[in-house]
C-alpha cells in the first residue's frame, strides 16, 4: 500500500509504477498511505538530525506529471486527488521536521500544484528561474511575490553559468557586454537587479544564487556588486518606459526605488526575438532626472549620469555612490 500501482492490476510489486530519474530506477510512493507518510516523516527527521534541513530535488508539477501524467493509477482515478494527498504528505514532513527547513526544487514550474506544495513545505528552490534572456521575467517576479506573501523562503537561482555566458554559442551569440566588462557580467548584473526587483523590505525570505554549478567555487565567480549597500526598497517595481527599439521590437523598462539609488531593468522583448546586441539599444532617462552612478560587477562606480543606454535584456543598478550611498 505504500506504493502506486497501474490500474487494472493488483497491489503487487510487479505492478508498481516505475520510472527512471537521474539514472536511477525508482518506484512511485503512494502519498495517501498512512504508513508511507509515517515512514517518510520518521526517515527524514532522522536523516536531518545533524543538519539545518533537507532539500527535495525535482519535486515540481512538471517532474511528477512527466512520469505519471499518461498513466492510469489504481489508487488515484484523477489527478486532483493525487495532488491533494501529495500536498498533505509534504505538509506532514515539514511539520515533523520543524523548525528545520524543508526546501523543494520546483524549478521553473508555476502551477497551482507547485504553489500548494511550496506553501506546504515553507521553502522553495527556483532553479533556472532567474534568466535575463527569458521574456517572461515579469511573470516570474510576480510568482516570487506570491510565494513571499505566504512567508515561503525563496531561493532565486540562475540558469546559466559565467563560463557558459561568456561563450559565443547558441543564445549568447548576439549578447554583448553592454554597460559592463563582459557578457557574463552583464547577465549577472541583470540577475542581481532581478533579485532587487522582488526582495521584500525585510530580505530574509529571498536568497540569491548566481551560480548553479555546485562544483564551481564561489570565490572564482563572486560578484562584488552584491556587497554594495543600496539600502531598502522604498516602493514596488513599476514600468517606467515602453516603446520599440531600433529593430522595431517592443520593449518595456522596469524600475524600483531604493534608499540609495534605483534599479532599472529592460526585460527581454519577446519569445522570438533572440537579438541582444548593441543594435537593440535604447536611451532610458532615470526616474526624476536624478544623476546616479552605474554600479559595475566589481563594485566600482561609473560617472554620474541621468540617462542610461539599455539593450534587449539588460539592467543597471544606479546608486548615489559618492553622493551619499556607502559600501559595506
Question: Can you describe this structure?
Answer:
- This protein has 328 residues and is an alpha/beta fold.
- It is 26% helix and 24% strand.
- It has 7 helices and 15 strands.
- The chain has helices at residues 34-47, 61-68, 79-97, 112-121, 137-149, 162-165, 183-198, and strands at residues 18-21, 24-27, 53-56, 101-105, 123-130, 153-158, 206-209, 238-244, 250-258, 261-266, 282-285, 292-295, 301-305, 307-310, 314-319.
- The protein has a 6-stranded antiparallel β-sheet, with helices on one face. It has a 5-stranded parallel β-sheet with strand order 3-4-5-6-7. A two-stranded antiparallel sheet has the order 1-2.
- A hairpin with a 5-residue loop joins strand 12 and strand 13 (301-305).
- Helix 1 (34-47) packs parallel to helix 3.
- The termini are far apart.
What is the topological layout?
Elements: E1 18-21, E2 24-27, H1 34-47, E3 53-56, H2 61-68, H3 79-97, E4 101-105, H4 112-121, E5 123-130, H5 137-149, E6 153-158, H6 162-165, H7 183-198, E7 206-209, E8 238-244, E9 250-258, E10 261-266, E11 282-285, E12 292-295, E13 301-305, E14 307-310, E15 314-319
Parallel strand pairs: 3-4, 4-5, 5-6, 6-7
Antiparallel strand pairs: 1-2, 8-9, 9-10, 10-15, 11-14, 12-13, 12-15
Amino acid at each position: 500500500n505504500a506504493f502506486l500501482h497501474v490500474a487494472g492490476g493488483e497491489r503487487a510489486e510487479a505492478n508498481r509504477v516505475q520510472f527512471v530519474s537521474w539514472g536511477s530506477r525508482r518506484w512511485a510512493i503512494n502519498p495517501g498511505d498512512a504508513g508511507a507518510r509515517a515512514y517518510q516523516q520518521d526517515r527524514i527527521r532522522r536523516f536531518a538530525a545533524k543538519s539545518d534541513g533537507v532539500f527535495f530535488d525535482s519535486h515540481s508539477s512538471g517532474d511528477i506529471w512527466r512520469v505519471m501524467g499518461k498513466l492510469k493509477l489504481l489508487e488515484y482515478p484523477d489527478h486532483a486527488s493525487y495532488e491533494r494527498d501529495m500536498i498533505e504528505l509534504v505538509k506532514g514532513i515539514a511539520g515533523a521536521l520543524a523548525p528545520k527547513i524543508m526546501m523543494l526544487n520546483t524549478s521553473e514550474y508555476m502551477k497551482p500544484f507547485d504553489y500548494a506544495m511550496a506553501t506546504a513545505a515553507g521553502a522553495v528552490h527556483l532553479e533556472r528561474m532567474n534568466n535575463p534572456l527569458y521574456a517572461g521575467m515579469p511573470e516570474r517576479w510576480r510568482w516570487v511575490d506570491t510565494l513571499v506573501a505566504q512567508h515561503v523562503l525563496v531561493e532565486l537561482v540562475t540558469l546559466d553559468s559565467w563560463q557558459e555566458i561568456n561563450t559565443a554559442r547558441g543564445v549568447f551569440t548576439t549578447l554583448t557586454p553592454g554597460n559592463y566588462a563582459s557578457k557574463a557580467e552583464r547577465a549577472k548584473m541583470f540577475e542581481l537587479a532581478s533579485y532587487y526587483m522582488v526582495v521584500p523590505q525585510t530580505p530574509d525570505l529571498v536568497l540569491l544564487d548566481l551560480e548553479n554549478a555546485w562544483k564551481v567555487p564561489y570565490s572564482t565567480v563572486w560578484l562584488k556588486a552584491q556587497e554594495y549597500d543600496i539600502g531598502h526598497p522604498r516602493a514596488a517595481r513599476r514600468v517606467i518606459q515602453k516603446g520599440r527599439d531600433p529593430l522595431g521590437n517592443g520593449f518595456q523598462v522596469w524600475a524600483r526605488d531604493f534608499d540609495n539609488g534605483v534599479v532599472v531593468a529592460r526585460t527581454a522583448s519577446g519569445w522570438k526575438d533572440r537579438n541582444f546586441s548593441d543594435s537593440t539599444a535604447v536611451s532610458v532617462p532615470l526616474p526624476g532626472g536624478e544623476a546616479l552612478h552605474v554600479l559595475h560587477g566589481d563594485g566600482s562606480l561609473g560617472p554620474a549620469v541621468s540617462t542610461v543606454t539599455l539593450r534587449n535584456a539588460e539592467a543597471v543598478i544606479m546608486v548615489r555612490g559618492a553622493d551619499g550611498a556607502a559600501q559595506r
